[in-house]
Design brief:
two-stranded antiparallel ribbon, 23% helix, 6 helices, alpha+beta, globular, 23% strand
Length: 205
């Protein structure tokens, strides 16, 4: 682990193994931790390799709450990031440089909205033909590039608790999470890697 330019060995719970701060622990690039430039590393690598048995420390530990926060912190009272509930098709096309969109249905916006630990979100919008505007926003969380890419389930399993305890949403039934202040509610099925922002006009019917 790297924090404030100090390096530590930690167990899988994220707790330091000892109280020492090491001069250098080579950190794999996918952690986004402070590290040396590739040019500098190329200069010191031959010496480092002769001094140490290993050139990296790999762990599948991530802080699920902080990782989810890097995705969920982009939620606003009317949508996520630049996407807003009720947004017209023309605005979506401008935002994502789309030349043509269907009149209705779910549309993948082919974006990658990066969080931390190489976890990113992609967005899709549900368009209602009658009003030609957004009524549903699907957010899919992708952890394939993350250190936990081969076992991302612990991240997805932490979503219900994050929705209720951190975001303060009220769980109304198995999949519906009510929001007081937003113009949408969130629908999330346990264990899935995606959730839906749904207009209250839909969830309250």
């Amino acid at each position: 682990m790297a924090e404030n330019e100090k390096y530590y060995f930690a167990n899988k719970k994220g707790n330091p193994v000892d109280n020492n701060s090491y001069y250098k622990i080579s950190v794999p690039p996918f952690t986004n931790s402070p590290s040396y430039s590739s040019f500098w590393s190329s200069l010191i690598a031959p010496h480092s390799l002769s001094d140490y048995d290993a050139w990296g420390v790999v762990t599948n530990y991530i802080d699920e709450k902080k990782t989810l926060a890097s995705i969920f912190d982009k939620l606003t009272s009317d949508g996520i990031d630049s996407l807003k509930m009720g947004q017209p098709i023309s605005r979506i096309m401008d935002l994502y440089n789309i030349k043509q969109m269907p009149a209705s249905g779910m549309v993948d916006l082919h974006n990658r909205d990066w969080g931390i630990n190489q976890v990113f979100a992609t967005y899709s919008v549900g368009i209602l033909y009658e009003c030609k505007c957004v009524i549903v926003i699907k957010v899919e969380i992708n952890a394939n590039a993350s250190p936990i890419g081969d076992n991302p389930q612990k991240l997805f399993d932490a979503i219900p608790q994050y929705l209720t305890e951190t975001l303060g949403l009220k769980r109304e039934d198995e999949n519906l999470y009510r929001s007081k202040d937003a113009c949408y509610d969130i629908v999330y099925c346990k264990g899935e890697n995606s959730f839906f922002l749904m207009s209250k006009a839909m969830t309250e019917e």
